UniProtKB/TrEMBL annotation:
Active site (catalytic residues): 206 (proton donor)
Native source organism of the sequence: Rhodotorula diobovata
GO biological process, one term: nucleotide metabolic process
Protein name: Adenine deaminase
Subcellular location: Cytoplasm; Nucleus
Length: 333
């Protein structure tokens, strides 16, 4: 319909896409075949059964068990390149113009895959996608909160050459939030600053409380927050964050699949708009959560029926909040 074509045509950015979360069941089974791997049949029987299981995650940790298992099939450079390229191809029809892509190095090095294989493979697939579809990209490494601070420190230090070369522009933090307050990882972000990571972000306030978003921004000095939806439980916090320009990367379909919200209509998006908080709309793990970036825009439109001016503003805020050059931003609008 006309809303769909309007939202599709709107130049969109996404800053919250885990490339491992774009591993579709089809590719998962194909790569398992390619490597002669036997998948655990209790988790992986057929594609329809797997898709049904993905519709029934109990919470973030239940999802993470699947997310962290599926990536066992990513082994050589070509696998990582194919994964990144498939994502680019899929969103090229959605009006995506720029993506800032997360990956979890520890999840790969921890099972014996060389960091070189991971980064080179991803870079190759993204570059090929950029050439074919004109979508620009940046890479952001995330350390995982379910492993130790020491492991995160090591992952950050190992990334130094890729930061120096400009291939990896930022550090984020993802995985299990429960029992892992931001303050635990303050020293990791200090190391990242010393190593020269130009940009910092953190998953915060997805399942955790508003006070943890406050810690992220004020104690750790991080001004991009991935998810952050629970910040909306604290009006005073929002009033403090708006003038700082703290940028939220929201993932509405993810929040429903992981039972943060019962439906997209529970999302605090209208409140964030009213409070002048800048945010973007993102897919998070599109192969698991029922849609890519445009599907998230459409779900939000179904829930809130924003007018065209509001949609243009949301998309523009997503461009403004990107970590690319001003020239690139100008070309996107
Ligand atoms: N939250 C935390 N960790 C993740 C997510 C998420 O939404 N996606 C992939 N890893
Ligand atoms: Zn995420």
């Amino acid at each position: 319909d006309s809303a769909t074509s309007f939202l599709r045509a709107l130049p969109k950015c996404e800053q919250h896409i885990h490339i491992e979360g774009s591993l579709e069941p089809q590719m998962l089974f194909e790569l398992a075949d390619k490597h002669g791997m036997k998948l655990d049949e209790r988790m992986y029987s057929t594609i329809p059964a797997l898709e049904e299981r993905y519709r029934n995650f109990a919470n973030l940790d239940d999802f993470l068990a699947y997310f962290n298992k599926a990536m066992d099939v990513l082994i050589d450079e070509e696998d990582f390149a194919a994964l990144a390229y498939a994502y680019m191809k899929r969103v090229s029809g959605d009006g995506l113009v720029h993506a800032e892509v997360f990956f979890d190095p520890q999840a790969h090095t921890g099972r014996g895959i060389a960091l070189d294989v991971v980064v080179k493979g991803l870079k190759k697939g993204l570059a090929q996608g950029e050439g074919d579809f004109g979508i620009t990209t940046e890479l952001i490494m995330c350390f995982v909160k379910h492993l130790s601070v020491e492991s995160a420190q090591q992952a950050v230090l190992e990334m130094q050459p890729w930061v120096a070369s400009g291939d990896v522009i930022g550090l984020g933090a993802d995985s299990s939030e429960k029992d892992n307050p931001p303050s635990t990882f303050a020293s990791v972000y200090e190391t990242a600053r010393e190593v020269g990571f130009p940009r910092l972000t953190m998953h915060s306030g997805e399942e955790g409380p508003a006070s943890w978003v406050r810690q992220t921004v004020f104690d750790l000095g991080i001004n991009r927050v991935d998810h952050g939806v629970h910040a909306a439980d604290d009006d005073k916090l929002l009033d403090e964050l708006a003038p700082r320009g703290t940028f939220f990367t929201l993932c509405p379909l993810s929040n429903v699949r992981l039972r943060v919200h019962k439906s997209v209509s529970e999302s605090p998006i209208p409140k964030l708009l009213a409070k002048g908080i800048k945010f973007s709309l993102n897919s998070d793990d599109p192969a698991y959560f029922g849609g890519y970036v445009l599907d998230n825009y459409l779900a939000v439109h179904d829930a809130f029926q924003f007018d065209k001016a509001t949609w243009r503003q949301i998309a523009q805020n997503g461009i403004d909040g990107s970590w690319c050059s001003d020239e690139r931003k100008a070309a996107m609008s």
